Each structure stands twice: as structure tokens, then as C-alpha cells.
Amino acid sequence: MSELVVTGLDAGYGGAQVLHDVTFTVGEGEICAILGPNGAGKTTLLRALSGMVKGRGGVRLGGVELLGRPPDALARMGVAHVPEGRGTFMPLTVEENLRLGAYTRRDGLEQDLDRIYTYFPALKPRLKQAAGSLSGGEQQMLALGRALMLRPRLLLLDEPSLGLAPLVTRELFRIVRTINEQERTTVVVVEQNAHLALGVAQRAHVLETGRIVLSGTAAQIRQDEQVAQSYLGYRV
């Protein structure tokens, strides 16, 4: 069953249209990768899904229309967005950042904090440390942990590997896959590292100049000659 259904989505900034008739679905509990070159509209797509950019068309989560609702309303509906650049509150402590992720509710916070420390044990000894003093990898873990404090139904990840060492990136994607498997959270991830994204995703879509030009399972996309040459560095 499709959890997220995007139909004929147009979106942009001011008078500049970025997304054109974008249509795709993501199954319940799936990881969906969005691939494409810089400037293709990938970040705009996630912003439209989280209510940060106004769009026209249809975006339904579990059968409920999301378009036209502000970001705080979508957060209360279970849409969590980890933006490019992480978006952590640098002067606040690690614990304060995590608790902010659960601002829409007040129940079970301590249990959820323990759950986050299970996924990201490196954060626990740094609870009282300012987020700005963390390494890049730790900040990305904090941003993801804060999003998980929402208990999201839909998790949107924008370039989670940006600026991270390969070892840290692989660990981060391993954690994303574990979260998806254990909590059945539906994930849409925008990622330049196509190898990693296709390694964890069940489904993928290629976005170019604001349009979906290729869709399929991760295995199908990996075997496509155009994708292999453009994003994976080999010929099929």
C-alpha cells in the first residue's frame, strides 16, 4: 500500500517554477531515494513535501492531503524533515536539541531519548555539550536524532552525507536502514552518493530539471545504463 502519493506536483520560488508535474509513490515502510544532478530540484521537492515551499497538485500521506498546510501542522501529522546542512541549533545543548524535536507532544520523552542513544551512543556522553562543538558527523546524528524524537511517519533526509567522511557516511546510512527496519518509518532520501542511497533504498526516482525522468526499484535503477554512467561511475 502506498503511504506517500505525489501527483502532478508543481512548486518553485516566487515566479520561478522548479518542479514540473512530479508524480511518484512511496510504499508504507519503504526507503525511497531521489537522485539527480545539482539544480535538478531535489531540495525543492523535500521542501514542498514538508510545507516549506508552496506547491500545486497533490501530496497525500496515508490518504490525507498535505498541500496547503503549514510546516508545523505537517510536523504534528508526523512529517520530519532533516534539511541539507543539518539545521541544528548550535548554541543549545545536545539534549535541548533532541527535546525540541518532540515539541509537538509531551508523552514518553525519556523513553524516546533512551531510544535515540541506542541508535547514536556517541551523543549520550555529550548531552550537556553545545551542538556547535560537535563534529560534522555527530551534528548529522543529532539532526537525525532530533527528527526521530517526533516519532515520524515520514522522514525526509536532504543530503545526509554532505561533508562527512566515507566511514561516517556508511555508518549513518546503516543507522537509517536499521531505523527503517525496526520502526517501519517511511523514508525519502535525497543523496548525491548514489551507491549508498541505492544500497539502502527499495525504490528510486531520478529527477532532472524538475521532472521525474526515471522510476523503478533500486535494483532496476542501478542497472540502468544512464544512471550507471552518470551517478555510479560504470557502464552496464
Automatic annotation (TrEMBL):
GO terms for molecular function: ATP binding. Belongs to the ABC transporter superfamily. Keywords: Amino-acid transport, ATP-binding, Nucleotide-binding, Transport. This is ABC transporter ATP-binding protein. InterPro entries: AAA+_ATPase, ABC_transporter-like_ATP-bd, ABC_transporter-like_CS, BCAA_Transport_ATP-bd_LivF, P-loop_NTPase. CDD domains: ABC_TM1139_LivF_branched. Residues 4-234 form the ABC transporter domain. PANTHER family: HIGH-AFFINITY BRANCHED-CHAIN AMINO ACID TRANSPORT ATP-BINDING PROTEIN LIVF. Transmembrane segments: none annotated. The keyword Nucleotide-binding applies. Pfam families: ABC_tran.
